[in-house]
Write a structure and sequence with these properties.
There is one protein chain. With about 475 residues, the chain is of the alpha/beta class. Helices cover about 40% and strands about 20% of the residues.
């Protein structure tokens, strides 16, 4: 099949979050399965020079952005068998950072329109265009309103993937004609609660809507999770589904990881004890065999940091040690710094994000705490299991879909349901009790390492969806 995957960021060229991981890994898995998947993203200023010099200039054309005609250059790169098209416009993309500018609406309107124009110039017509989040949400809208009946654009199916429904692309109604160039008689496609909502426009016009986990697909029908868009989705459930993201199993591989103290496998986990000893020494935690709990996250309330804050001393007094890595709201940064100062033998805090240290925490910790208020998919819990570190999570979104409580059959972690600090404390307590049974814990760790969260599994689900849309059974 021919799939055009469009996103505002994709590894290895540009990344600010989980979207880049998906856009860098899923297309590679689709190509590995024998399909022709190509990726389109902006050519940002932040693209590394060594990657930039490997790009090949293909062509340029103009793109209509409302009443403007804007230049668009097209550069081609190839990584892991995937063809990447990077769209160049220095006015929009030669900036420090990817998002957060006053004209983000105009920048990503340009991206969406440029993707549609690109198809007419590269001599390759996709069967499916898979768009991601609000930055490319106008692609199915433009296809339905402008391109569907043009020569060379017939029978293209569109899929819109929601990675986080909180960010919707909301702007004033004036952008319809001034920036988007969409006539007022099509305004109802994008209008929502008196404003333009790009994500709502994609819900209206895409052939399928997917989310990054099965649970998140039904959670966003609930006002608690939907950030106001549940009413727009209520009548679209017939085209809504969710597929759990995967992780890069080559990057996160305890058998070959070069930055951890010792390598190990599910069958021979001797190296994990060395990783724990190395982590304790590196972070200055007290010696002993008490369980080490890793926390790698942004310090914001929806990641469950307020729950951790509320019962943190209880967990420390329970005998737990903590390896904390992250940054975010100052109130939480100050709290963790104070706890590290008060209990240095049990709490280590590193502010910021250090990728190599993150992998040493995944490898060296015994447990991984992730009590999110909401989590569309989450990758950290899967990475921790890849390293034999047992996740403790709240049952929400992708955490519910990837972690099963060890109190039942085929458990690979510990879970709690309600967003409550003492329910979380109870799950931590159960994990610590389980940890004391050395043999049972070793079996649990081995089972977690053998769980398959590779992109190969997720790619099969996407391929099935694309074939369903196109009527392609081959």
């Amino acid at each position: 099949m021919r799939i055009l995957y469009t996103a505002s960021e994709a590894l290895p060229y540009a990344a600010s979050g989980g979207l880049a991981d998906v856009a860098g890994s899923l297309p590679a898995a689709l190509c590995k399965a024998g399909h022709d998947c190509r990726v389109v993203l902006p050519l940002y200023k932040s693209v590394k020079p060594e990657l930039r010099q490997e790009l090949k200039f293909l062509m340029n054309f103009t793109v209509d952005v409302g009443w403007r005609k804007q230049y668009c250059g097209v550069f081609e790169g190839k990584v892991n068998g995937v063809t990447y098209y990077l769209l160049d416009n220095e006015y929009y993309f030669a900036r420090d950072g990817l998002y957060g500018f006053y004209d983000d609406c105009e920048r990503f309107v340009f991206l969406s329109r440029a993707v549609m124009e690109l198809i007419a110039h590269i001599g390759w017509k996709p069967q499916v265009i898979n768009c991601n989040d609000w930055q490319t949400a106008l692609i199915p809208v433009y296809y339905q309103t402008y391109y569907k009946f043009q020569y060379g654009y017939d029978n293209i199916k569109t899929v819109f993937t929601v990675h986080n429904i909180q960010y919707q692309g909301r702007y004033g109604m004036d952008v319809l004609s001034d920036i988007m160039g969409i006539p007022m008689y099509h305004a109802k496609i994008l209008e929502y609660d008196g404003a333009v909502n790009m994500m709502k426009g994609a819900f209206e016009t895409a052939d399928k809507i997917t989310t990054v986990s099965p649970s998140y697909a039904w959670e966003i029908l609930d006002p608690w999770y939907s950030h106001g868009l549940d009413r727009a989705l209520a009548g679209k459930q017939y085209k809504l589904c969710g597929f759990l993201n995967g992780i890069d199993t080559a990057l996160y591989d305890p058998e070959h990881d070069p930055v951890i103290p010792a390598n190990y496998t599910a069958g021979d986990r001797a190296g994990k004890a060395k990783c724990k000893a190395g982590l304790i020494k590196e972070l200055g935690l007290g010696e002993g065999n008490d369980p080490v709990i890793g926390i790698i996250t942004r310090f914001v309330s929806h990641k469950g940091i307020d729950l951790i804050k509320y019962v943190f001393e209880d967990m420390v007094n329970m005998g737990c040690k903590f390896a904390v890595l992250g940054a975010g709201e100052k109130i939480y940064e100050d709290f963790f710094k104070e706890m590290a100062w008060r209990r240095p033998e049990r709490v280590s805090v590193t502010l910021g994000f250090v990728p190599d240290l993150a992998r040493r925490i995944y490898a060296g910790a015994d447990m991984f705490l992730m009590p999110s208020q909401s989590e569309p998919c989450g990758l950290a819990q899967m990475i921790s299991m890849r390293y034999g570190t047992i996740p403790i999570v709240r049952e929400t979104g992708g955490l519910r879909d990837s972690v099963t409580d060890a109190g039942g059959e085929n458990g690979n972690g510990f879970t709690f349901k309600t967003y409550n600090a003492h329910d979380m404390l109870g799950a931590v307590g159960r994990a610590c009790e389980y940890y004391r049974d050395t043999e049972a814990w070793a079996k649990l760790s081995e089972y977690a390492m053998n769980c398959d969260y590779s992109w190969d599994s997720s790619a099969k689900l996407y391929i099935g969806l694309y074939r369903e849309l196109c009527g392609d059974e081959d």
